[in-house]
Amino acid sequence: MPHHCCVPGCVRNTAATPDLSVHGFPSDPDLKKKWLLQIRRDEVRGKFEVGTATKVCGYHFIEDDYCAGGRKRKRKTAKTVRKLKKGAYPTVFEGCFPDHLVTTKESRKRPAERLPVEPKAKKSRTSSSDDPLPLTASPEPSTASSEPAESQPGCDKHCNCVLGLLSQIQELEDDLESERSDHEETKKELTSSKAKVADLENGVAVLRDQLLDRQGRRDFRSDRILADDVKIRYYTGFVTLGMFMACFNFLRPSAEGMRTWQGQRTRTGPRLTAKAGAASKLPLIEQFFLVMVRLRLGLDVVDLADRFELSPSTVSRLFTTWINLMYYKFAELPLWMSRKKVNKFMPPCFKEWYPTTRTIIDGTEFFVEQPSNLARQSATWSNYKNHNTVKALVCISPDGTVTHVSPIFEGSISDADLTQKSGLLPLLEHGDSVMADKGFDIQHMLTSIGVKLNIPPFRRGEQQFTPDQVVKTKKIAAVRIHVERAINRIKQYSLVAGVIPNSLWDVSEQIIHVCAFLTNFQPALVG
């Protein structure tokens, strides 16, 4: 980059004079102030600022100001750069400063003496050889001959100024062309950079989505959900964290030695084989939480696999394993209540009207996906529901506790056959009474074991009920409704409320029994 001398009136620069030596201002404040004073510059009031590019050319220094020798510049044309001595400052300013910056003026030469001139004498343009007054007699030639000699320094100065300006113009044109070239390259780089930035922004957006997705899946874990009772009930069906942990702690000893389901499925019992994998890496409480979420919300294995960062096959095996474990562990508990316990927790409405009631029964159907087997299609078809279903008998105590659930049967089975095959009759004792709906024509079954049946009366061809029959119907309906409420609680588990897929056919009975048992963790239906 070319440098210009900053001394007022000096037009020298390195572009016009490549070998010109230029020197930057010293870092010492006092010496710098002396430099400014010498070159007639005021940095405070003169709007003059000293920078790294502010230079003073070597013409303003005397020979004694330089050190002996020199050093080479690392440029294409290496030239010797002269180094100033410490404390040196510019002192030579001949022909540089404008008049308003010159503090002292040189003394004017004494004019030559002139001879007296006669008044009214006509001056002759020619004179004789012996004329003693050549300056006065011929002033014009003398003036003409003296003017070029006096104007020569000013002309040189003017020429130097013009040359300096032309050099500056050429330098500015070169700089402009260079700037244009740099501008074009900068535009290309900017366009390329914008494309790269767009690609990076797209990449960042993808990574942000992946991060949020992973954070969302991480948030869907038991440690966050179980901190809120409202979320616990929504995702698992348990009312409080205490209920959730009580059920998990009951299952944990068996779950710790549990092996993940890997073999052929069977209705008679689970075949469990050992297999290490993602399921074994998931903590037991997370596995239990996963199973409860699927029961309560009915989520598909693909959805759960994404939430828990597992494969769908792993989720399916985990669910089958835990459902079988829960089914067999819950079956060990004595759900059927003794006569003494029934009487202890019997609500006042039963004590007043039906004090001998041992259980309230009703049949309920669960939708299943249409089986591929034609015989099973026919057996599971329900004309009442107009769908393929399976049917189970649900028994509750007078306070609303689920005490017995029968095995599941095809949806075409009648209520009487369902009761006979449900396993309920051996549980009843002499003197008990059973409450049911009109469709349960099972009086002959109960009479043989000394059990009474309470069902709404039939009209038997009469146009309307008698007043006593109306009262009896209302009383039975008022208390029998609780079994329907209990069934509704079971079907609040979305996996059995919707259509049970064929993939879960072999564990559908276990699922229904587990959902029925889990309703007992909720508050009592009848106070």
What does this structure look like?
It is a single chain. By secondary structure, the protein is an alpha+beta fold. It has 18 helices and 11 strands. The protein has helices spanning 29-38, 134-137, 139-219, 222-225, 229-236, 241-256, 278-281, 284-297, 301-308, 312-331, 339-344, 348-353, 374-380, 415-421, 443-447, 467-490, 494-497, 508-518, and strands at 22-24, 55-57, 71-72, 80-81, 357-367, 381-382, 387-396, 402-405, 409-410, 433-435, 452-454. Strands 5, 6, 7, 8, 9, 10 and 11 form a 7-stranded mixed β-sheet that branches. A two-stranded antiparallel sheet has the order 1-2. Strand 6 (381-382) and strand 7 form a beta hairpin. The longest helix is centred in the middle third of the chain and has 81 residues, at 139-219. The chain starts with 21 loop residues before the first strand and ends in a 9-residue tail after the last helix. Mean pLDDT is 80; it is low at 124-151 and 265-278.
